[in-house]
Amino acid sequence: MIAGYSLIEVKTFAEAVEWAKRAPFGLGVQDGEEPEVELRPLFDPADFDVPGEAEERAKRLGDKLGKA
Q1: Cβ(33)–Cβ(2) below 8 Å
Q2: CB-based burial label for 25 (10 Å; 0-12, 13-18, 19+)
Q3: What is the DSSP letter of 12?
């Protein structure tokens, strides 16, 4: 078994599925076996952050570490 991963940038999950259907994942697969493909979305930390919150936490941590 060979494992690996690819990162692709698409606008929708459906676009990722279409890309995966065209990708040559079956290369090197034995007769009777099927390749297993798993699609996982990645998120930007900004998707979860209140604007400015991460910067403020980083500043406070830097200040705290600078005083230690």
Answers
A1: no
A2: middle
A3: S
